[in-house]
Amino acid sequence: MGGLSMDQSFVQAPEHRPNPTVTEATGIPLIDLSPLTSGDAAAVDALAAEVGAASREWGFFLVVGHGVPAETVARAAEAQRAFFALPAERKAAVRRREAAPLGYYESEHTKNVRDWKEVFDLVAREPPPPAAAAGGEVVFENKWPEDLPGFREALEGYMETLEELALKQLELLGRSLDLRPGRLRGFFREPTTFFRLNHYPPCPSPELALGVGRHKDPGALTILYQDDVLRRSDGEWARVKFVPGSFVINVGDTMQVWSNDRYESAEHRVSVNRDRARFSMPYFFNPATDAVVEPLEELVGDEDPPRYSAYSWGDFFRTKLSGNYKKLDVENLQIEHFRKGLRA
């Protein structure tokens, strides 16, 4: 994996190291989305209520009956494995930089500790290059590896299908909050959605390192195709069992703020092991750069005032990205920094 070897940069603080034994979470909501195609308004209302309950109580849930073709998922997974099987120099040819943060990377940090993984990042829609790129602006332009047949087509098809699922899920979340139809979609006219391929190689010290350290997703929601993730439940980490044909839907920080804490972004992390490689494909559904994130006016009042100050999604996201490349002197920006009564 590009010469990666265990050193102090990967070592988690003692209180955050993986537990020798992890229990399997029970009672995780498994929601069948097929009523969305039934045309039955009452069935969709019941489905929205399920989504709302899961978002309040868990911050994530699994979905089946989502309409994403199995062959579309299989092609994307095959493309993922083909890319990470490339020689190090081939992957390095599409390596990302801080000013151009798409492509391959093997030195990402979460909570100021290096993750035991390598990644490949894409955006679902390429925005036009910023006019002031030379002046320090971030340029989001996909880097496609050469001579990898079908790679681009497989991932573009997958991202297109997941956007349809994300929009359906967004509408269900809005319906569960009694918002008018299309209320949340207005924040996604030019979404900054991005898609990631994760590869977690066998690790010589899985008792010290994590594939991804504890974190919450900053966007509106995440659609995750995965084989093994840990979630915090009642203060303890529990393993989410993989259900074939399902996706995990995470409530993100942005949805937590919009809902004024009715829904909570779930903290999660990824474990590694000595024996086998692991893979995941998260799709991060993010609002437009110019979106202002704050509790929605329909969900606040005299008895439930806004719990967060407004902030720019674009500025927030750029600041979050800066922590991926280096160890910072302070913890990276979190939505808690915008909580009322705290200084942002």
TrEMBL record:
Residues 1-11 have a biased composition (Polar residues). It comes from the Eukaryota. GO terms for molecular function: metal ion binding; oxidoreductase activity. InterPro entries: DIOX_N, IPNS-like_FE2OG_OXY, IPNS-like_sf, Iron_ascorbate_oxido_reductase, Oxoglu/Fe-dep_dioxygenase_dom. Residues 191-287 form the Fe2OG dioxygenase domain. Its cofactor is L-ascorbate. Residues 1-22 are annotated as: Disordered. Pfam families: 2OG-FeII_Oxy, DIOX_N. Keywords: Iron, Metal-binding, Oxidoreductase. Transmembrane segments: none annotated. PANTHER family: 2-OXOGLUTARATE (2OG) AND FE(II)-DEPENDENT OXYGENASE SUPERFAMILY PROTEIN-RELATED (PTHR47990). Belongs to the iron/ascorbate-dependent oxidoreductase family. This is Fe2OG dioxygenase domain-containing protein. The lineage of its organism: Eukaryota, Viridiplantae, Streptophyta, Embryophyta, Tracheophyta.
